[in-house]
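Pilot study result, target chain (194 residues):
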Amino acid sequence: MALLKFLNVISSPKNLLLILFVINVLLLVLPPFPYDETRFGYGYFTIFFPFLFIGVYFFLLEQKELQLKWFISLVSFVFAGYFYLISKYHPELTYVNFTILGFLLFSLAFNLRNSLKENALISILSSLTFSVYLFHKWIFEEIKLTLLKCYETNVAIDLTALILLFLFCFMMNRTVEIGGIKLGNKILKHFYKI
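Predicted structure:
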């Protein structure tokens, strides 16, 4: 997005929507990334990247730059692409509907955001969204497998793995993500004399 903005390609919402649609279509027809059929992450980027577009669609809908019928069409296209790709690259996950649950939760939080009071918990959870998005698929399962090896019973393994995932993501946010943002700001200030 930053590159598209820098190149002034997304000077209008219509251009942005067209670019996102083309990217979505390309992800449906190009080989999956990463391309390693032996790994659980096979095609992860290809399958899940278009879900980032949904946030853009929400923003444009809120700004009245996108009509509701187009919002519904574009979000439906993202989900149709997801179900096509997940059945192609990970058929074992075809009937696991966590993406629908995630979308509904995001929609609920987005629509109720003005009635949510700012507090430490909400601030921390909102700062973790990107790192959780990046790491949940691989780290959560690895943590669960490690816990299952360490304990004879699997009582509360999922909850423990979730807590450990959040702790890992919290550390990544505080070190890598915040550090990267600070570095990026310094670079921008240097080049653009902001």
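One observation from the pilot: The two ends are 20 Å apart (CA to CA). A full batch analysis is planned for the follow-on phase.
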